[in-house]
Amino acid sequence: MSFVFFDTETTGLKHGFDQIVHFAAIRTDANLNEIDRFEVRSRLLPHVLPHPAALRTNGLPIGRLLDSSLPSHYDMVRAIRQKLLSWSPSIFLGYNSIRFDEEMLRQALFQTLHPAYLTSNHNNSRADVWGLVMAAAAVSPACLNVPTGAEGRPIFRLEQLALANGVAQEQAHDALSDVITTLELCRLVHQRSPELWQRFVRFSKKATVADFVEAEDGFMFTELFANQAFHAPVVCIGRDLDQANGRFCLNLSSDLDRIAAMTDDELRAELAQKPCPVRRLRINAAPTLTALYEAPEVMLDGVDIDAIEARARQMKDNPALCARLVSAYTSTREPRISSRHAEERLYDGFPGPQDEARLIEFHDADWTDRLAIVHNLDDERLRFFGLRLLYFEARSVLPETLRLELEHALSGRLVDVDAGGLTLEQALREIDEMLSADASDPGGLLADYHTYLVGRTARVTDFRAKQFAI
Q: What is the largest CA-CA distance in the chain?
């Protein structure tokens, strides 16, 4: 078994509309000894505008992102995919990776016409070191020093954790530096609390998580809100029929007799309150789970384990009540409406087998032959991304009318607030607001970006006026 620690630096936080510009990963053996490492950067996609806050955080000047010597986004993603496949099967780890870096990687693969779920397929599994740190703070506080803020709340930010634990960090918010820091924190847990580490690794596999949550007479489920860990004793009450990896759990601090006596309308009203007594976890997202007998007092917070287990068995012995709770919870969901933006439709379904075969053919073909392959794709999302990719990588193969259509759509992304991404006007406004709140601008990073945006605005306005004037 091997581990792959990875991190991304991106142009912003918006899945589907921002892009990866820096990817780094380190592969280790089962004992966290480094075997190999990989790092790659990409130049900026023409229709993507970095958020000024991302540039300030990552310390990336706009000139570096425009460097023509850097690989294109497509070439970067191809290199990432090749390397990660060569390292598979592995357990993929990052810091806050499941909620962010995994999503950015999936989008990058999807939008370059590759299978999106690399870290979940190929016998791979995944886990999030953020959850490990939360568990360490509660279950084995001696293995990691977790700093606290002015209000006494723990701070789980990677930079502060590194400082508190004597982990040298060469450059925060640099992909490779953050990977090294994450790996060093894991080595501390691995050395100081082998049991915690083994449980963390165990729950990286969704089959193991499914078996645990469905078999246990109660367990502790840890979630993070507003950078604070909350631990709740829960029992699994059913599966999410709409999403195969979802499981519904009931907080066992609830008054079960009161809940059982409620009408369906009263149940729906009860479950609409915050915090909701029904929690949903994803078995494929490496949730932070702790068996009741392993939970320390700080996590239990006075909870009587015997009483909790008795309540859990009471729920399991009442499948009708479990079904009522699941039905009441799911009935309050807003119906899912498919977005008009292809970037927000990653989870609208898998490509069919014929399209999967066409995509393999696409990546092996000459650019002159790829347009016909894209036109034959059944999935409209893939056709959209395929045409855009052809424009970026080989626009000379496109008929003039199609090229003009793509130029109209892509330049529109820079000026239309309804297009989904950051616009030129919004980016300029963000810079002004940031400098008004904090006038410091080390290296003139924001000033340079402001100059670029002003010039880009003039060019885009002039281009659209000449090409698409009615």
A: 76
Contact 6, 101 (CB under 8 A): yes
- Exposed/middle/buried for 418, CB within 10 Å: 0-12, 13-18, 19+? exposed
CB of 121 closer than 8 Å to CB of 115: yes
Q: What is the pTM for the complete model shown?
A: 0.94
Q: Encode pLDDT of 93-135 as tens digits.
A: 999 999 999 999 999 999 999 999 999 999 999 999 999 998 8
The CA-to-CA distance between both ends of the chain, in Å, stands at 61
Phi-psi region at 2: left, alpha or beta (left = phi > 0; alpha = psi -120 to 50): beta
Name the CA radius of gyration of the chain, rounded: 25
Residue 125: both structure tokens together? 């599994």
Handedness of CA 453, 423, 438, 154 (dihedral sign): negative
Ordered by where they begin, the domains of the chain are 3-195 (3.30.420.10), 205-331 (3.30.1520.20), 349-468 (no CATH)
For residues 81, 128, 211, 314, the Cα torsion angle rounded to the nearest 10 degrees is -150
Alpha-carbon span 277 to 134, nearest angstrom: 21
Tokens found for residue 185? 């924190």
Q: Which one-letter amino acid corresponds to residue 286?
A: A
Inter-axis angle of helices 319-331 and 264-271, nearest 10? 60
Length of the chain: 470
